[in-house]
Amino acid sequence: MFPFSLYLPTRIYAGRDCVEQLPDAVKNYGQNVLIAYGGGSVARSGLLDRVKNLLCGFNLIEFSGITPNPKLAAVRAGVKICRENKIDFIVSLGGSSALDCCKHIAAAVAYEGEPWDLVTDSAKIGECLPIFAVMTMAATGSEYDGYGVITREDTHEKLEIMSENLFPAAAFLDPCYTFSVPAFQTASGAADIISHVFEQYFVAKGNILTDGFCEAMLRTVVNCTPAAIREPDNYDARYQLMMASIFGCCGLLSMARTPSPWPCHAIEHEVSAWYDVTHGAGLAVIIPRWMRYSLNRDTARRFARYGYNVFSIEKTEDPYADAMKAIDATAEFFRQIGLPDRLSDLNSAITDEHFKEMALHIEKSWSDLKNSFVPIDEDGILTILKESL
Amino acid sequence: MFPFSLYLPTRIYAGRDCVEQLPDAVKNYGQNVLIAYGGGSVARSGLLDRVKNLLCGFNLIEFSGITPNPKLAAVRAGVKICRENKIDFIVSLGGSSALDCCKHIAAAVAYEGEPWDLVTDSAKIGECLPIFAVMTMAATGSEYDGYGVITREDTHEKLEIMSENLFPAAAFLDPCYTFSVPAFQTASGAADIISHVFEQYFVAKGNILTDGFCEAMLRTVVNCTPAAIREPDNYDARYQLMMASIFGCCGLLSMARTPSPWPCHAIEHEVSAWYDVTHGAGLAVIIPRWMRYSLNRDTARRFARYGYNVFSIEKTEDPYADAMKAIDATAEFFRQIGLPDRLSDLNSAITDEHFKEMALHIEKSWSDLKNSFVPIDEDGILTILKESL
Fold first, then answer.
1. Considering the domain A11-177 in this protein, what is its CATH number?
2. Does the structural domain A183-388 have CATH classification 1.20.1090.10?
3. So what's the pLDDT on residue A276?
């Protein structure tokens, strides 16, 4: 068993109307507030007005138009506004696209150089503006970790900024604000949560506690996602998805386990960087191919165990066959919640043209996939990408 | 599903030699250090010398002799030393007896009135001295929560001090320092962890995520405790028990579940306050009686589910019978790890003489046990205590 550290300084508020506690949470953080969000959905849902009313005693500056797969240009624009208005803290409204962009802004305001430097060298991240995250999506868990993902279009790079100073000061999880999330985004968020668990669960050595934590996360997603899609205002299903999502990347699931290089995320980030696909949907295509690539006589027992404990697959004498059933059940689950089965269904522009560049970029910019559950070299990445086409 | 908040500001360091990170963890907290511990075991194990060497650049003041079920007198003594030496922070070495005493000291140093006031009115707790907890036991999880339990001998009261300012700044979990914990204390710690989970798991309404988290905790304890007793230096078993213990009271297991008044803890605290028994051993006696008291046609399914998922009891058509098997398996588990089956085995002085006072004191000083999984009134408390005799 491996050493670990765990540090979760974000204060979580959860349940209906928890955003009412925002004024109390921010009261010692200053007067000048950046309210950041993406499109009009937070205005249509009434969340924007509600937050503006709750913070009516503060100087509020709005910053909108943050896109999915947020781009470096938005970071630059946000930094400029923060500096001009001497912003004290940021309130992010929305999903992790808004939040991750806010994280990069929060880190870059006090940094004189190019914001991208903070991605390539996290030692350059110093003090960050405090962030309060009012969530409207269950997906990345960025509300309970120190990571933010940002895309640099000129170089086709989608990479992470990372610092424990980037844990939000507080996060607000009101399931009602996820009722309006469309089915496709709900399903993509579910695939993202599943992938976070997989990246930590499928490793050489686990332990009873975190194996169980991981399986509880997976059962939650497998049970609640179809319900949330069928009945978008199913409070309990939405609530459970929001609860599960926050633990994806915070460190709880990887305690004392073999460290993982997160292979599916590495591969999907390359596809997103080139073709701007929805992260979770890209993962849903790649995951079953990665599973088949990684299935062998040594790994079969773990895939089979996952099948028994998450999909209630009946145990037979043949763990390899059971593992195959578990992989099929995973692919079938993604189909049932409406996610595409192939990258070309996700974006018809995707061909194998840039696959080689992607594979080389993973080796250069991500952790080494040779340390995956089953080692993956450049050829392996190409195999998984081609199978996913 | 219920609203909740979660706030876990303690930094956890875990694994062999993690205490080496203590100097880095404390470096911004001042120069005057109280090193607090109980008996000689931390000296014999070498931990005391190691910590003194690690902190050789600081002004170190030792405070020893903290007893199990720590008493108010020790708090007063510790407060006096802290004030005389202008202590900046406390390093607690040992299990939760040392740590809980340190928590009360940490809160009382800045309080001018009687330290017991802070137990009866937590609003009086202000700024607390920072605490760094180097653990040598897996049991209460005090290293990852804001609670401390203290006993007032003159009134036979064992109650909690509670503040989020009492979360340790950092906790160090090196399994090797638990190798020397005797079998009885190891088993008692295991019963304590199990009870923490039970108090939150057996409620009217749960959810998939925390049901799974709770069951993972229970499987860890049920699997690793016999191994840790059989082979005291079994690193993986000790490590898993230490990991599991920290989540007992931190809020993770109760997220969005029906709130619980922690009935077994209420009853055991009364017994400990009068007869100074080992907390976990007292719980191991009370738990099966509480389970039988709480088993009925409505609650059978949850007890049965626990049996299926923790003890792999085979599912039949009769959940009530399965629940009985689960309760029997629990009592048998406690017997197997060497815990006594009756309060009178734990301390021959225990009779029913004070049971009535205990029942009345629970109603006065604890939460209302009528809100338990199955409501417990004064007669119910007496029934459980008498069955436990």
1. 3.40.50.1970
2. yes
3. 87
